[in-house]
Amino acid sequence: MAENVFFVPKEARWSVISADAHQPSIGVTIDNALRLIEQENPRLKGILPKNFARPELDKRRLGDVVDLFTNIQMHGAGDERDLLGRTYEYCLQKFASMEGKNAGEFYTPSCIVRTIVEVLQPYSGRIYDPCCGSGGMFVQSAKFIRSHQKEVRNISIYGQEANPSTWKMAHMNIAIRGLEADLGKSYADTFFDDQHPTLKADYIMANPPFNLSDWGQASLLEDVRWKYGIPPAGNANFAWIQHMIHHLSPDGKIGLVLANGANQLFYSTGIPVSLWFLNRDKKQKGKVLFVDARNMGTMVTRKLRELTEEDILRIADTFRQFEAGTLQDEKGFCAVASLDKIGEQDYILTPGRYVGIAEQEDDGEPFAEKMTRLTGELSELFDKGHALEAEIRKQLASIGYKIG
Prior knowledge:
The protein is an alpha/beta fold. It has 3 domains: 10-72; 96-355, Rossmann fold (3-Layer(aba) Sandwich), CATH 3.40.50.150; 367-404. The protein is built from 12 helices and 10 strands. The strands form 3 sheets. Strands 3-2-1-4-5-6 form a 6-stranded mixed beta sheet. It has a two-stranded antiparallel sheet with strand order 7-10. Helix 8 (237-246) links the parallel strand 4 and strand 5 (248-259). Helix 5 (110-120) packs across helix 6 (136-147) and helix 5 (110-120) packs parallel to helix 9 (309-324).
């Protein structure tokens, strides 16, 4: 208890479950194990599903699933105590890749979460996520703190989630990491039932639902949170931003994901996204740092791009230099703009407008020579194209089809 370790009772461990995998009672065995875990870990009371014994669930298939996990080779890497947590994260990631557009409700790609955490550096204080999904922001914050040999007990975690299943997933994710969190008395809509009305957080990290419509503006017109104007009825993005600012401490910082602006980093959608960072007590007042990360990252699948560890650290270091006032603009990557300059751009905040295009390295070949070479290569390609066209016409004619 002193180390806040997640404890699994002996009768609820995998050896007991796997031994019953192909018994008709496997559902009862799993339900009993989950009850015992709840008894041992009171914060999970009423959270874990205990309906595996229901008659309509095929017990043969359930046993096959148990076998799948039994036969997975768990190779230790890093902290052995986090093996269960890493397994849970792996499952969330795989489920997200199959869930399509619904995945965003519970999972934010870890490279995005790590970028937000590396920039904000939440070593101590109150951490808040008003749409916490499965709790990824909290888990990465704890990892960051531990990796810098700091005490996790120096942070207090607050969250809220509207989806009941996702709210339970967050409880489980946090519990198995040995973390304590206040996720509200129940799952609830953040706009209509704020579970932390008096909270002033030091760090707010969130990936709110993209471009949420029908969020209930008509019933919240007089809400105290709309300090900068009533958000539009058809899009909740500005409402999320103002909700976060309302809950920010005098020297607090926000890191959030918003649609429109950077890479395709999500399993669930091709919508480009931007990471926004707001600092209530920033040193470079009247200035905004723009980073264009469109050319960063590597494609891990045909459709999905991920920022590498090197990319993440480069972005975080860019913010450090900006805060210190030592950052030099780098064409195609980063630029610092004044509010006046942003005004000249009609307050459009697309990074590419400010960072420009990276300068191409001169290859030393004189322009006239390069054009002669390139036009020669193009002429050869044209000749090949004509030859291929003639061959295609010939082959089609041989089977009775004539073109033109």
